[in-house]
Amino acid sequence: MADTNRGRLAIVVGGGPAPGINGVISSVTIEAIRRGLEVIGVRGGFSHLVTGDTSKAQVLGANDVGPWYIRGGSLLGTSRVNPAKDPAHMQNVLDAFTKLNVKYLVTIGGDDTAFSGSQVYERAGGAIRVAHVPKTIDNDLPLPPGIPTFGFETARHYGVQLARSLHEDARTTNRWYIVVSMGRAAGHLALGIGKAAAATLTLIREEFRGKGLTLDGLCDLIIGSMAKRKVEGKSYGLVILAEGLIESIGEQGLVEAIGEANMHAYGKIEKDPHGHLRLGEIEFGRMVRERLSKRMEPLGLKTTMIDKDLGYELRCADPIPFDAEYTRDLGYGAVKFLLSDEASKYGAIVSVVGGKLVPLRFQDMIVPATKRMQTRDVDVNSVTYECARQYMTRLEKEDFTSPDRLAMLATAVKLTPDEFRGRFEPLV
Q1: 3-class secondary-structure state, position 359
Q2: What is the rounded distance in angstroms from the CA atom of residue 57 to the CA atom of residue 39?
Q3: 10-residue averages of pLDDT along the chain (428 residues)
Q4: Which of 314, 330, 346 is the last residue of a domain?
Q5: Catalytic-labelled residue, pool 112, 138, 220, 307
Q6: What whole-number distance in Å separates Cα of residue 169 and Cα of residue 190?
Q7: Domain carrying residue 24
Q8: 53 is catalytic
């Protein structure tokens, strides 16, 4: 690895995959080389660097990255290893970068990788300039209003295609689909898919902030939708659930509903290196479906239900034109920032607003107490969410103010109007 006159830039990818990673790698590499830098890509995120291993660093040329520009996945792989958890690991990372003569670093990832990048900048005392490119299909990082994280639009695009197909299958075969969408902290992806696919019902955790949610309450919201559809003469539907609803219910809430002895049937409750519940380890869709069946039986609701998880199919998809163009801007912007005077003063998260590069200082974006960025929630008071609600089929206050309407809904589930009101009105 021969030195160049301006030094060496390293690229590290962290967290889960998202469409467009290769677009960032490609544009960073090409622009950095054009500006006289040597570029190295580190395979496996921080997983090898935390041990001081530099053998996974490889020189990247334009020909190495060019063909990957519109491809999904990550040519450098990725890892959730968090070097910031252990001072010794972070020192090994810094020693590895010193050995590699790295003067510039581009990290690609979510909030945990952003914090890792910020710690490299801080611990290196400015000797390594750092730019972070925000990535997640969840769209939950606090970028300026209206600015998505790269990968979100592609994930939503393919998620909508799959959801529309399931919706048509539901109509054709008279069944209900319970689809769990990725979105640990926020429901942007679930809502985006549900709204564009005309889902019967979409539920996200933001709706229940400060209200509390139980597994039985969640099931009854779906049953209420089923009852309303039955009154309308429809025996099918598509429900989209954000996986973050698991955390809204909580570990204890799941145990109380299912029973500790039965939890193993739905997977293990484990946490990742960043302290998050491993939601992918819990078969939430099956849990909801089976709980629904038990609660529906006394109500005379009989229907075929199928649960589907939606997320891993979306993370390594080829980026749609929006993300292909967007990641080129972000990669170019990352290099432009690193070679600017501002990069000598602070490390930053790269954003492009109104066609202009807007570096967001690490210290302004990362909450010291949590060591993560503040989550960008779905604004349930916005007109976009209001619109989504209006096109769902779900119980509303008006269903309980009309005696005739209430009677029809109660009859659909073999309850008296008073019984129906007592069970379902508190959920509205």
Answers
A1: strand
A2: 10
A3: 69 96 98 97 97 96 93 96 93 97 97 93 95 95 93 97 97 97 93 98 94 94 97 96 92 85 77 59 91 94 94 95 97 98 96 95 91 91 96 96 96 96 94
A4: 314
A5: 138
A6: 19
A7: 8-150+319-373
A8: no
